[in-house]
Amino acid sequence: MRVLFVSSEIFPLIKTGGLADVSGALPTALQASGIDVKCLIPGYSTVLEKVENITYLGTLEVFKNISCDLLTGTVPNSKLEVIIVKHAGLYERDGGPYTHPQGHDWSDNPMRFGVLSKVASLLSIYQSFWDWVPDIVHCNDWQTGLAPYYMRQQGLTDAKSLLSIHNIAFQGNFEQHWVKSLELSPKDFQIDGFEFYQQVSFLKAGIFYADKLSTVSPTYALEIQTEAFGFGLQGLLQLRSSDITGILNGIDTEEWNPEADPYLPFVYSEKKLSGKAKVKTALQQQLHLTVQQDAPLLGVVSRLTHQKGLDILIGSMPELIALGCQFAILGGGEKSFEAQFNAYAEQYPNQVSVTIGYNEPLSHLIMAGVDIFMMPSRFEPCGLNQLYGLRYGTPPVVSNTGGLADSICHSNADTILNNTATGFVIENVNKMSLLVTIKQALSIWKDKKTWAKIQKNGMKKDVGWKHSADAYVALYEKLLN
Ligand code: ADP
Ligand code: GLC
User: Fold this and answer.
1) 457 three-class SS
2) Which ligand neighbours the alpha carbon of 248 most closely?
C-alpha cells in the first residue's frame, strides 16, 4: 500500500508543535508496518538544509503562473523519504512556517499551502516523471485541506483521501478573492463546498471532500461534533459522523527515552529512578532556582495560548508559590502570558524560572527534572507532553478533555491500589478546580512510596506508535475497500 503523507511540519526538519512530532514518528511507524510511505513537505530553508541525499525529481506546473521543483531526500537518522516542494519565493524565508519573524501570519499563506495541497493532488495522478502513485493521500490539518478538493475537482485519480484533524481551532479561512488565484471552482463557494461564513476555508474543504476523517484521540472525535468544541464546524462533522475515527497519538520512544536521552546530564529508568532526582538538582542549578529536593517543582512546556489554559495556572501561582512550589516554564506565544509569567520570575527568582522561546534541549530537561507536569488545557485534541510525562516518570496534572482524558488516569485510593493511577485530572478548567487537584497531587507527592508507584505505572505504559499505527493501517484498508 502506498501512502503520501502530507504535512506542513515534520520533526526534526521543522516544528512548531505536536503536528511535527506526529508527522515525524507516525510515517516511520507505518513503514515498520509494511506501508510504502513518502512525506510531502514545503521546501522551507531549514528543510532544504537538513534533508539528506537530495535529488531533483522534476518540475510541476501547479497553477497557471506558478511552477515548482520537486526534490526527494531522506530525513536525517531515519529511513523516511520526503518529497520537497521547492519554490524559493514561497518558502525560503526567515521566520516560522506560518509567521513572519515579527509574529504575524504570512499574507500569502493561502498560496503557500494551496500550492502544497495542489501538489499533493497532482502527485496522486501525475506519472510523467515518476511512477510512484499513492493509493492514499493522508492530509493533516488545514494546510493540506484543499488537497481532497483538488483530487475531486480533477477527477483523475483512484487514490483515496484521509484528513487528520489535529486542531480544529486552526481552520485556514481566507478572503473570497483567493478562489481565483487558487483556481477553485466558484460554483463550490457555497455551503456544500469550501465556503465558510463567506470565506474560503481550507479545513472545511478537507472535512467536506475527504473520503474519511480522523482526529488524534477518541474523545476529541466526539467533542468536535459539539458546539462547545467544534469551532462552527460541528454541524458538518455531525453529518460526517460515520466517517470520523479517533486514534490516540503515540510518541517517538527513542527520541523521548529517559534511559538514553542525550539532553539529560543523568539518565534513569523505571527500575532505577534515582537519576531523576539528580536531573532535578541539575535543572534547579541551571535555572537558578533554590536547589532543594523537597520543594515541589512544577513544569510547563507549551505554546502559550488560550487553548492551553495557562491563564488559570497564572492566576493560581501566588498561592502555589506561597506553598513552596517552584516553577520551570518554557514556552512562547501570546505576549500577555509571556509578560505575566515573566513578572513572577522577576518577583520570585528563586522559585520561578521562565524561558521564552523554543528550546528543544531544555524541553527534555524540564520533562525529566520536574516533579509534576502541568497541562490545564481548555481543549486538547491529543497532547503529547502528558505522554512524555508518563514516560519520564513525571506525573501530569491535566484537564478532563480530548487526548488528556484518554491517556491519563486520575490518582485516587482505588486507582492507586489497582496500579492504574498515572496522573491527576482536573474536573473543570477553573482556578478552584486546578488548586484542589494540585494540592491533591502535592499531598501524594510527599508520600514517596505512593508517588513512586504512580511514576512507575506511567513509565510502564506503552505510549509508542505501534498500536496507533495499526489503527491507521486498519483505517487505510477500510478506505481502499
Ligand atoms: P500542540 O501541538 O498543541 O502545541 P502538543 O502537546 O501536541 O501540543 O505538542 C507540543 C510539542 O511541542 C511537544 O513536543 C512540546 O515538547 C513541544 N514544545 C512546545 N513548546 C515548546 C518550546 N517552547 N520549546 C520546545 N518544545 C516545545
Ligand atoms: C495539535 C493539538 C495537540 C496534538 C497535536 C498532534 O497541535 O493541539 O493536542 O497533540 O496537534 O496531533
Assistant:
1) helix
2) 2
Domain, as residue range, for 118: 2-250+466-480
pTM over 0.90: yes
Which cell goes with 402?
480530548
- Residue 241 · residue 267 · CB < 8 Å: no
CATH of the domain at 111: 3.40.50.2000
**259 within domain boundaries:** no
Q: 337-372, pLDDT tens digit by residue?
A: 999 999 999 999 999 999 999 999 999 999 999 999
DSSP string, 310-340: HHHHHHHHHHHHHTT-EEEEEEEE-HHHHHH
Residue 9 is assigned to a structural domain of this protein: yes
How many domains does the structure of the chain reveal?
A: 2
For residue 158, is it within any domain? yes
CA distance 258 to 438: 24
Nearest residue to 424 via CA among 409, 402, 403: 409
Distance 22 CA to ligand 2 centre (A): 8
SS3 content of the chain, % helix, strand, coil (to 5): 40, 20, 40
Same domain, 181 and 71: yes
CA gap 63, 115 in Å, rounded: 8
Is residue 269 included in any domain, yes or no?
no
Ligand 1 in contact with 302 (CB < 6 A)? Answer: yes
Ligand 2 pocket mutation, candidates 10, 379, 384, 463, criterion most atoms within 8 A of CB: 384
Q: What is the pLDDT of residue 103?
A: 85
Ligand nearest to the CA of 384: 1
Find out whether the beta carbon of 218 lies less than 6 Å from any atom of ligand 1: no
User: And the C-alpha cell for 99?
Assistant: 509567521
Are 232 and 338 members of one domain? no
Strand, helix or coil for residue 332 = strand
Q: Which cell numbers hold the place of 101?
A: 519573524
Dig out the grid coordinates for 333 from the structure. 506565544
pLDDT for the residue numbered 127: 73
Kind plus residue range of the DSSP H or E element containing 202: helix 202-209
Statement to judge: residues 363 and 280 lie in one domain? yes
From the CA of 396, how far away is ligand 1's center (Å)?
A: 15
Which ligand is located closest to the Cα atom of residue 367? 1
- Smallest CA separation from ligand 2 atom 12, residue: 166
CB of 363 within 6 A of ligand 1: the answer is yes
